[in-house]
Amino acid sequence: MERSQWGTRAGFIMAAVGSAVGLGNIWRFPYVAYENGGGAFFIPYLFALLTAGIPILIMEFTIGHKYRGSAPLSFFRMSGKKLEWMGWWAIFVSFVISTYYAVIIAWAMRYTIFSVNQAWGSDTEAFLFNDFLQLTVTPGQTGGVVWGVLIPLILVWAIALGILLGGVKKGIEMANRIFIPTLVVIFLIVVIRAVTLDGAALGLEAFFKPNFDAIMDPQVWVAAYGHIFFSLSIAFAIMITYASYLPKKSDITNNAFITGFANSAFELLAGIGVFAALGFMANQQGLAVADVAAAGVGLAFVVFPQIINEFPGFNGLFGVLFFLSLTLAGLTSLISITETYVAGFSEKFGISRNKAIIFGGGLAAVISILFATQGGLFFLDVADYFINQFGVAAIGLVEVILIVWVFRKADMLRDHANAISDIRLGGWWKICLGIVTPIVLGYMMFGLLKTNLLKEFDTETGNYEGYSDTFIMLGGTSVALAALVFGILFSFGKWHKDHA
Length: 500
Ligand code: PHE
Ligand code: NA
Hints:
Blueprint: H1 9-20, H2 23-35, H3 42-67, H4 71-79, H5 84-116, H6 124-132, H7 147-165, H8 168-195, H9 200-208, H10 218-231, H11 238-243, H12 252-285, H13 289-292, H14 297-309, H15 315-349, H16 353-367, H17 376-406, H18 410-420, H19 427-453, H20 469-492
Helix pairs in contact: 1-8, 1-12, 1-15, 2-10, 2-12, 3-4, 3-10, 3-12, 3-18, 3-19, 4-5, 5-7, 5-15, 5-16, 5-17, 5-20, 6-14, 7-8, 7-15, 7-16, 8-12, 8-15, 9-12, 10-19, 12-14, 14-15, 15-16, 17-19, 17-20
The chain binds phenylalanine and sodium ion.
Keywords: Membrane, Symport, Transmembrane, Transmembrane helix, Transport
Main location: membrane
Subcellular location: Membrane
C-alpha cells in the first residue's frame, strides 16, 4: 500500500503548527511565564527553545522523514528493533493524554455557548465547579455522568475522528489549513480588543516586568524546559508521525525552525492578550493584577468569564471568540495526538487506517467518559500531573540519551537532515541534544522523583495536591507506569508483514 503523504509543504507546516499550538499556548504559557519571573522568564524560555525544543524537533522530524513510519516503527528501523519500545511508550503516553485533553476541549466548546449570554452569572467559580462540573464527590470517586460535559465531549471526538477518517491529506491537512488561519484571525481580534481595554497597560506591565532573581532559581529553568516540551509536542511520538508523511524532498531544519518560532509567537501573543485582559479586570475592581491572576483551569474557566462579564459592550462576541480559539487550538492538537496511535496500531497489526481510528480512537473516547463524571476533574488533574512529568519529560530524557550516547545516531541523523535542508546543522546541535538537554532534564527528573517519593509537597499528606496515597497510586503512578509497561509489551509482538 502506498504511504499517505502531505499534499504541500505549507500543509505539513500547518499541521505541525496545529499540533504545537494548543491549550498550552493560550492558558498555560501566560501563567507559567508570570509565575516564573515575568519578563525575566524569557531568558530561560528562549534558552530551552533553542537548546532543547528546536534541536529535538529537528531530530524527530529527521527520524520520521528518514524511516517513514509511526514512532515505534521508525525507532524499530533505526535501531534494529531495540528501541521500538520507546515509540510505544510515547504512544501510550499520548493515548492517556488524548483521553483528558478532549475533555478540556469539550469544556471550551460548552463555554463558547455559555458566552453568548454569560450563562455563568456573577459567581463564575461556583458556576464552574458546582453547576457545570458538578464536582460533588471526594477525589477518587467517580459519581454520576455529567451530561453537560459528556455531550460536547461526544461532539469533540466525532469531529476529531471524522477528520482523521478523511486521511492525512484530505482530513488532517485540510482541517489544519482551515482551522489554523481561522484561529490566527480570531485570536488576533481577541488580543487587539484586549490591549485596547482600559487598564491593559497594567496587566502588560505585570506580565513583562522582569524579576531577575527568578533566573537564579533552578526551578524556573525546569519550568521553562517542561513547558517547551509540552508546548512543542515533542517526545510524544507526534512529530515523528507527522514527519513520516513528508515527501522525500523536504526541508527538515527550516520546517522545524518555522514550527518552533510560530508556536512561540502564538504563545507570546496569548500572554499579551491574557494579561491585558487581566489588567482590565484588576483596574475595574480596584485590585492588583497579582490578585486576579490565577493558574490552571481557573484562568480560562473562572477568570475569563469574569472578565467577559465586565466587558464594555459586545461581551458575548468577545467570549465566543476567546473560547472558540481555545476549541480550535485544542482540536488540531487532539487530532495530532490521536494520529500517533492510529498510525502505530495500523502498521503493527496490518489493519486499515480507518479500523485503527474506530478502535483506537473509539477506545480513547470511551475511556474519556471517566473525566466527564462528577469526580472527573480530580482524575484529570492527577493523570495530567503524573503523565506529563513521568511520561513526557522522562521520554525526552531517555530518547536523547539512547539516541545520542547509546546508539550513537546523532551524526547519521545530522547528515540526513543536512543533505536535504537549507540550514546546515553544526556541532551545536549535537551538544544541545547530547549534553545540555540531558543535564537539565536529568536534574528535573531527579527533583521530581525526590519530591514525590519523599512526599515533599506542602500538604497534609505530603502528596501532590494533598491527594490520598491510594488515589495517587491508582490515578497517577500506575497510569504513568502502565504507559511504559504497555510500551514494552507491545514491542514484543511482530510487525505485520508489510512493515517488517
Ligand atoms: N502542544 C500542545 C499545546 O501547547 C499540547 C499537546 C501536547 C497537545 C501533546 C497534544 C499533544 O497545548
Ligand atoms: Na504549544
